[in-house]
Amino acid sequence: MNSNQKQGSEALAAINALFPEVDIMTPAGYLSAVRKGVSGKALRSIVNVVGERNLIAKTIGKDVSILSKSYRLKRLSPIASDNLIGTLRVYVRAVMIYDSVDVAKEWMNTSIPALGGELPISLLDTHAGRELVNLTLRKIESGEYV
């Protein structure tokens, strides 16, 4: 296992640890995690693992300058939790496909022709955008896009 693969495995393990007893990548696990909600403590950990403060703030409807105030919340709202976990699912899929956090982040910040030249990261703040990015990742995974 090279260092990128190890880093990818560690990031996935850290995300999975935030949602004990559920797999956010399955529909049932996703639903369960959303219904439980994301704690402020988990939000802080997600920011540390993913490292995209601006994206995470936008995803939960906060300005990045006050994102840290959300770390004190018992739970994010159901809508914010749904948006955040949905974004995490896309992030996890990219890390799994590329077997590397760095390569996944590079892809997320690259103009993708299949997305109309958009950066995948710029689409993750909405459900429709996450669906488009997920569709593109599925096509990459199946070999349709290279």
Task: Describe the 3D structure.
This is DUF2384 domain-containing protein. Residues 94-143 form the Antitoxin Xre/MbcA/ParS-like toxin-binding domain. With 146 residues, this protein is mainly α. The chain has one domain (3-142). The chain has seven helices and no strands. It has helices at residues 3-18, 27-36, 40-50, 53-59, 78-98, 101-108, 127-142. Helix 2 runs antiparallel to helix 5 and helix 5 (78-98) packs parallel to helix 7 (127-142). It is globular, with a radius of gyration of 15 Å. The model has no long low-confidence stretch (mean pLDDT 91).
Layout of SSEs?
Elements: H1 3-18, H2 27-36, H3 40-50, H4 53-59, H5 78-98, H6 101-108, H7 127-142
Helix pairs in contact: 1-3, 1-5, 2-5, 5-6, 5-7
Jot down its keywords.
mainly alpha; globular; 146 residues; 7 helices; 61% helix; single chain
Brief sketch in words of this structure:
The protein has 146 residues and is mostly helical. It has helices spanning 3-18, 27-36, 40-50, 53-59, 78-98, 101-108, 127-142. InterPro entries: Xre/MbcA/ParS-like_toxin-bd.
The SS-based structural class is mainly alpha
- Taken in chain order, the helices and strands follow as HHHHHHH
Q: How many domains in all?
A: 1
What is the CA-CA span between the terminal residues?
23 Å
**Spans of at least 5 consecutive residues with low confidence:** none
- Computed CA radius of gyration, to the nearest angstrom: 15 Å
Q: What is the number of helices? A: 7
Percent of sequence in beta strands: under 5%
User: Can you tell me the overall shape?
Assistant: globular
Count the beta strands. Answer: 0
Largest sheet properties = none
Helix content: 55-70%
> What is the residue-averaged pLDDT?
91
